[in-house]
Amino acid sequence: MTTAPVWLFDLDNTLHDASPNIFPHINRSMTAYLERHLALSNDEANALRMHYWRRYGATLLGLMRHHATDPHHFLQETHRFERLHKLMVFDRALKAMLKKLPGRKIVFSNAPRAYIDAALEVMGIRGLFDDVVGIEALGMQPKPGIAAYRKIIRRYRLEPRRCIMVEDTAVNLRTARMLGMRTVLVGAGTRHPAYVDVKIRSILKLRRAAGSLYG
Ligand SMILES: [Mg+2]
Question: Cβ(203)–Cβ(93) under 8 Å?
């Protein structure tokens, strides 16, 4: 007897390509937020944004720790897209691939919930996921911190050995593996760490490549 897996999907640079438009927009918005709320020059704000991102893995965490920034306000202001559908870069074949993939599917992202929902809507795949977990539901504690994974495991009563996590950020898969999940790294890079079970260049290859992980 086989048991269908539970898929945990990252969003940005896993289900779509955020690099051309989305990430630059978010970075500019974050810099502008720091300028405005911390009274910094553009250069200072940009440097501080990068500093917090490197030190804490997320600019938001540095702002919360050192400036008592309201995370909801920050996320709302920095993920405001006038015409998201014009900015999204994704493959229309994604929907058909996901449809054929057996098992529950959950989006597990460090991004804010409203943005995740909007992005899935643009791609026409929102209905293919059983649920969506964003940074708010993680108590603002992002991947790769183990607290985020424990939250999602508890919330959906997941058995880690039945889970397959799909991600473009390798370090996020390290925590998944530590907990007993199987791991798929998506991206063009050549790195293939030991904690990655399967590596694929494009999400469209997932169904074929990951067949060995379940069934
Ligand atoms: Mg990502």
Answer: no
- Contact yes or no for 174/195 (Cβ under 8 A): yes
Ligand 1 center–CA 89 separation, angstroms: 14
* Residue 170 Cα to ligand 1 middle (Å): 9
Specify the DSSP element, H or E, that contains 73.
helix 71-78
Q: How far is the CA of 17 from the centre of ligand 1 (A)?
A: 9
Note whether 29 and 115 are same-domain residues: no
Give me the residues near ligand 1 (ion), CB cutoff below 5 Å: 10, 12-13, 168
Distance in Å, CA 166 to ligand 1 centroid: 9
* Domain tally, the chain: 2
Could you tell me the distance, in angstroms and rounded to a whole number, from the CA of residue 39 to the centre of ligand 1? 30
CB atoms within 10 A of CB 87: 17
CATH label of the domain that carries residue 182 = 3.40.50.1000
pLDDT tens digits, one per residue of 86-120: 999 999 999 999 999 999 999 999 999 999 999 99
Q: Are residues 125 and 171 in the same domain?
A: yes
What is the distance between the alpha carbons of residues 163 and 183, in angstroms, rounded to a whole number? Answer: 8
pTM: 0.95
Whether 35 is covered by a domain: the verdict is: yes
- 1 — pLDDT class (breaks 50, 70, 90): very low
Q: What pLDDT, on a 0 to 100 scale, did the predictor assign at position 31? A: 98
